[in-house]
């Protein structure tokens, strides 16, 4: 997929983001009147709803012809949305705020009441015990090298937020961009990183499969974590503002399909794990998929997620971290301006 025209380029987290004044391909209906949309995904548990909606025909039943584009980074998703070439991407609130402050017209169509980030660590890295207090585990990262997907990515920002919340100077922790979990596992096995920040439980399980002494070191969703840390990492469905404005019914139909997929996953976790293994892990890692789905059903797909709405407290927590990390002009960031009416509480 190529962008036809680049009009203005700004920097979001060290990565170029296209904004303002570019041509749009639109998402008009095909011969049958269905909406043609493109969905970017990354091989993490949160993207499973899109694959289930595709495999179980929930998209088609809601008048949507969807094209799923795998292994897409958040920066690429924002670029494509800025030119209306992508209609949905699973990401976190902080990344949406960063993109919005940089001029990208992106909106939030729905959220899950969960917290996205986990740190998986090598048992031989000399860190604190996983049973130690949250604060002690964070402080033990000082002087260590921690892997992130990319410098300036959500995982990197999350690590900074976690450190700052416990009074640790972020500069005391060395970062290494290692990419996807399987690549991180290789770096950990070689002793180049002590820990790795991932945006999903499946990422942590993948590292544990390869590194025999690896363990889930901490999660942003722990009850012991500071409230801002628990809230800011709410995962969500990001959509382009232009699409949301011109095609509100399509956005609603897309989210209806997502809700139906979520409900199907809850009712059919074993089958959902099969979908995850087939569509996201190239037919491998079924045990990891099963673990990931079971955990998501228990923690994320509870009754509180029924409407997939986004709390103002979650927005405020993300904005607080945005300001702490000096990520841009916070005056542009408002709950009503970023969260679509359908997703507001």
Structure write-up:
With 345 residues, the chain is of the alpha/beta class. The chain folds into two domains: 13-113 and 234-343, Periplasmic binding protein-like II (D-Maltodextrin-Binding Protein, domain 2); 118-230, 3-Layer(aba) Sandwich (D-Maltodextrin-Binding Protein, domain 2). 41% of the residues lie in helices and 18% in strands. The chain has 15 helices and twelve strands. It has helices at 48-55, 58-61, 74-82, 93-101, 134-139, 154-165, 181-189, 201-210, 227-232, 241-246, 248-267, 269-280, 286-299, 312-324, 335-338, and strands at 8-12, 15-19, 35-40, 64-69, 88-92, 106-111, 118-122, 145-148, 174-177, 195-198, 214-219, 235-240. The strands form three sheets. The chain has a five-stranded mixed β-sheet with strand order 4-3-5-12-6, with helices on both faces. Helix 6 (154-165) links the parallel strand 8 and strand 9. Helix 4 packs across helix 14 (312-324) and helix 8 runs antiparallel to helix 13 (286-299). The longest helix is centred in the last third of the chain and has 20 residues, at 248-267. It is globular. The two termini are 36 Å apart.
